[in-house]
Design a protein that fits this description.
Chain lengths: 388, 596
């Protein structure tokens, strides 16, 4: 139907899958992801031995697990990226349903691993965090709904997706997991923005946020103190943030040297939330800038490819997936450099974590599947005399 | 508004006429509309995706830039500092009226431990127990080897102790700078100073907060960093305060009293020049507050001058006499019926030790001899309402405005039912209780010519007269009566040559806690002013349970106990106050001055 409507030429029926995949794939983005994964392993070698020592494992226990999960994640990514957008959509919807149900049953069967928030299912050898899988699934489902609402006589997809988003955010907040809730909300917001949110609504929301923030700042002493404490140049050096900023300072341009860092011994989350601090201390600013450049490259390149995409569903789903990926990385690094208030969030592909890795692999795989080069029916524009 | 029809009706109609299928036209129309819509959406999305891309580039750029800034800034030794509100430590000094230091701050160190970084906790604990003998070694070992990550070991260290601890060399023992409150004069004016202790404590600083006295009363002023250079100036005179304490302490011991208090007050400004309450304490090392079951008034922390509410006895008589004269009911020489006993409401009012002062006495003699009956007769003339009003004007029915927190506790005890009998007993100072500070304010009104002054601990620049409570003449007449009490009456030991002391004694039996009065325990008070012809100062001396044992039987009256102490005190402090001894015009009996 889509091809008929856009007048697109059907893909050559006889072309084998792998050559076609290789020809149409965004090879640069995929290379960036692989480089990130390798960097993650490298940092894991530095950051996780203290944790292994604390938990009584041999030093590189977590690196081995990371490599194993990483292998699975890369396999998932490659496999997903070979799928057609329709198949991606179908599987994603199924995956979304499964993880949504799993999320709903968390309070009954989940475990909190003594961390205060029930987010995981314990499978014995590993644990699964359903919300990690829910995020990419939800992005696809919401994109589907939003794009359907752009059809003539389409369903009210904007309302549906918003309600769904609200329900998921509620469930995440109840866990509580504010970080993931923010991500989901942000991802939906970006898709709604690209799908053509009315300008006046955006302006009104921005105004409301500024107004509400000012009001809260001037009226609530508690809120004001939180903001002042966050904005103040001084930071209590005995907090995780204090250790992290000190580690970044220690590292300087080229780092203190591999294995010489100290921060990993004092930070409980050195291998996840503050992996950037470890990178900055041992390898210096250079590596951190490389990491930032890789994320920027993936995000910007994907967005650029999506700009040329004519299918509204592919455009929206790709936008949602890539923004979530980028924002997650941004929040993680923003916390380490104290641009943002502390929030537990992993650095995609670099931080340690099975669920996060595999879900990230699937998400990026979907993104790669959606950003593959495909005929956009430009010929139709020329036929209609509107070509560029 | 031009409406574009959803279905191109005209074309469909014409197609029908021609026998063509209208569905193709409709489908074509929908397809075109769809393409237009998608094109519009795509153009918009293109723009917005561009915005999104720019946002991500900028955001990642900011993160990278910030990272670069942090990485290139100099790594500093991590210094502990509390975020947000810093602890304001600089506390203003307190000085006396001549600028001499009463309370100041002193740099010291507190000792804390971080057991996780200790090298040898056992040796550190042993070393500490050796240097600081008040610490328990076993407990320290337990703390240092246990799970605690942080503990305070000692709040204040002397420089020698600090050096010795430093020489132990254990990295887990650390010092936090402290600003501690120091009272260099020790016990002097302890009750006024009160004391200070640490409030919020951080590693780098601790808040010093006042816990009593002016330190608490003016805590806000003292802590305000804006006042760091402006000390709190008190009305006290350090020299006079020291002399008063010496004399009062000696007097208390000589008279076998268990407590004593004295107040010296400027009658014009209300400034309290010295105020002593014994027993006292060292504000540098405040004793623990009295626990449940202990009598708080026995604690050294108890400030008898402003907290002690006593029946002040005959010292009140002059108020009654002054009011009667002020109202024009009597003059100094009016004869008053002093026949006893005076019966009222089933009670008998008698005289001290059942003395008899004859059928009648002049008002002046009533005061001089301290006749209860005579004073009660004066009160009868005045009446309840006027007495109540006058006492109110003298400030005897309310708390004094004296600016230390303890003064809040000094609320006078007034009979609930102020009847005729109460009026009579109150007229000679029984049946109502007030603090010595109340008495000082009342006498100051007589001394300064009839104007109320509120006692204050803060230095004043000039006279601080309140409302007039009696006429100049009545006050002058009352003063000459008080002078006669010293020259001819019950306070004859109070004469200090050259300083013309005037005053009134008061001896009140102490009430038992469960009602009734002790026979052998008294509060002896001497309320005085000097020099009597133009008083500058009022001095109140009160002894708690004095007993003068030089005679065959113990003497407890104020004339034998409080008066000599007050006289000694005046003799010592009057020169310090800059008063020159004067020659009083006296009739020298038996000598006739002749000229030529």
């Amino acid at each position: 139907m889509t091809e008929m409507v856009y007048g697109a030429v059907p893909l050559g029926a006889g072309e084998p899958i792998l050559p076609k995949w290789w020809r149409t794939l965004d090879k640069l983005s995929m290379s960036c992801v692989l480089v990130l994964f390798v960097i993650g392993l490298l940092l894991g070698l530095a950051a996780s031995p203290p944790l292994a020592a604390r938990n009584g494992f041999e030093p590189f226990h977590y690196v081995q697990r990371q490599a194993m999960f990483g292998g699975l994640a890369i396999a998932a990514m490659l496999l997903t990226s070979m799928m057609s957008p329709t198949l991606v959509r179908r599987l994603a919807v199924l995956g979304f349903l499964a993880s949504f149900i799993a999320l709903g049953f968390l309070p009954m069967f989940g475990t909190d691993f003594g961390k205060g928030a029930v987010r995981w299912y314990s499978l014995g050898f590993a644990s699964v965090q359903p919300s990690e899988f829910l995020k990419p699934g939800f992005m696809v489902v919401a994109a589907w709904m939003l794009s359907a609402s752009q059809q003539i006589n389409g369903p009210p997809g904007k309302t549906w997706s918003f309600l769904l988003c609200a329900v998921i955010v509620m469930m995440l907040v109840l866990q509580p997991d504010f970080g993931q809730a923010c991500l989901v909300l942000f991802g939906w917001g970006v898709m709604y923005f690209v799908a053509g949110a009315p300008m006046i609504l955006l302006v009104a929301m921005a105004g409301l946020v500024v107004f509400g923030g000012t009001l809260a700042y001037s009226n609530s002493e508690h809120f004001a103190r939180r903001i002042d404490g966050f904005l103040s140049a001084e930071v209590d050096p005995t907090t995780q943030l204090g250790y992290a900023s000190n580690a970044i300072r220690e590292g300087g341009l080229f780092g203190v040297g591999v294995g010489e860092g100290q921060v990993k011994w004092s930070l409980p989350d050195a291998h996840t939330d503050f992996i950037v601090a470890v990178a900055a201390e041992e390898y210096g600013l250079v590596l951190v800038l490389i990491i930032i450049a890789l994320y920027t490259l993936i995000v910007v390149r994907s967005l650029f490819r999506l700009m040329r995409e004519r299918d509204p569903f592919i455009r929206l789903a790709g936008t949602g997936l890539v923004s979530m990926f980028g924002v997650q990385a941004m929040i993680n690094m923003g916390v380490a450099v104290r641009l943002l208030p502390a929030k537990g969030m992993t650095l995609p592909f670099v931080s340690y974590g099975g669920s996060s890795l595999i879900a990230g692999g699937i998400a990026v795989g979907m993104l790669l599947a959606l950003t593959r080069t495909r005929p956009q029916g430009e010929i139709g524009d020329f036929l209609r005399g509107q070509g560029r | 508004m031009i409406r574009i029809p959803l279905r191109p009706l005209a074309r469909i109609l014409s197609a029908r006429e021609k026998g063509e299928n209208p569905d193709t036209i409709e489908r074509e129309n929908i397809r075109l509309r769809h393409i237009t819509m998608q094109d519009k959406a795509r153009n918009r999305a293109e723009g917005r995706l561009l915005v999104l891309g720019v946002f991500f580039v900028v955001a990642f750029g900011v993160v990278g830039g910030r990272m670069g800034l942090m990485a290139t800034s100099e790594a500093v030794e991590p210094l502990a500092s509390a975020t947000g509100a810093t602890i304001a430590a600089q506390r203003a000094d307190i000085v006396d009226r001549n600028g001499r230091i009463l309370a100041t701050n002193f740099e010291t160190f507190s000792l804390y431990a971080q057991p996780p970084v200790m090298i040898d906790p056992i040796a550190a604990a042993e070393g500490l127990a050796r240097i600081l003998p008040d610490l328990d070694k076993e407990r320290l070992i337990k703390d240092f080897t246990g799970k605690r990550k942080f503990l305070w070991v000692k709040r204040k260290l002397s420089p020698e102790q600090k050096q010795a601890v430093h020489e132990l060399g254990d990295p887990g023992l650390m010092f936090g700078p402290r600003e501690m409150r120091l009272y260099p004069n020790g016990r002097l004016a302890a009750h006024i100073m009160g004391g200070a202790s640490f409030g919020k404590e951080g590693v780098n600083a601790a808040e010093v907060i006042g816990v009593a006295g002016v330190e608490k009363q003016f805590d806000g002023y003292l802590r305000d960093p804006a006042n760091g250079d402006a000390p709190l100036e008190l009305s006290l005179d350090l020299t006079v305060q020291a002399a008063s304490e010496r004399v009062l302490y000696g007097g208390m011991k000589l008279m076998n009293a268990k407590g004593a208090t004295s107040i010296l007050m400027d009658v014009h400004t209300g400034e309290v020049i010295s105020v002593v309450s014994l027993p006292d304490f060292d504000p540098n090392d405040r004793p623990r507050p009295p626990i449940e079951g202990e009598d708080p008034s026995e604690s050294p922390l108890f400030n008898r001058a402003v907290q002690g509410v006593y029946e002040l006895g005959s010292t009140f008589k002059i108020f009654t006499a002054a009011q009667a004269m002020d109202l024009g009911l009597v003059n100094a020489n009016t004869m008053v019926n002093t026949r006893r006993p005076l019966r009222q409401s089933g009670h008998e009012i008698g005289e001290f030790r059942n003395k008899s002062y004859g059928p009648e006495l002049s008002v002046s003699m009533v005061i001089q001899k301290s006749s209860n009956v005579g004073t009660a007769r004066l009160a009868q003339m005045i009446g309840i309402e006027r007495q109540k009003q006058f006492f109110g004007e003298l400030g005897l029915l309310e708390r004094t405005g004296f600016e230390i927190v303890e003064a809040q506790g000094g609320r006078p005890l007034i009979p609930r039912n102020w009847g005729v009998l109460e009026m009579m007993t109150i007229s000679f100072g029984h049946g109502m209780s007030a603090t010595p500070m109340h008495l000082a304010a009342g006498y100051a009104a007589i001394a300064n010519g009839g104007r109320y002054v509120s006692p204050t601990i803060l230095k004043q620049t000039g006279a601080q007269y309140g409302p007039r409570v009696m006429s100049e003449d009545s006050a002058a007449a009352a003063r000459s009566m008080l002078r006669r009490v010293v020259t001819h009456g019950t306070a004859s030991f109070g004469e200090v040559p050259g300083y013309a002391v005037g005053g009134k004694t008061g001896t009140a039996d102490k009430p038992k806690p469960r009602g009734g009065y002790y026979k052998d325990r008294v509060i002896a008070t001497f309320a005085s002013m000097f020099p009597a012809h133009d008083p500058k100062y009022v001095l109140i001396v009160t002894l708690d349970e004095p007993s003068e044992n030089s005679g065959s039987k113990p003497r407890r009256t104020a004339g034998w106990t409080a008066v000599p102490v007050a006289a000694e005190m005046i003799g010592r402090i009057a020169p310090l106050l800059g008063l020159r001894p004067g020659v009083e015009p006296v009739q020298m009996a038996g000598i006739t001055l002749t000229s030529n």
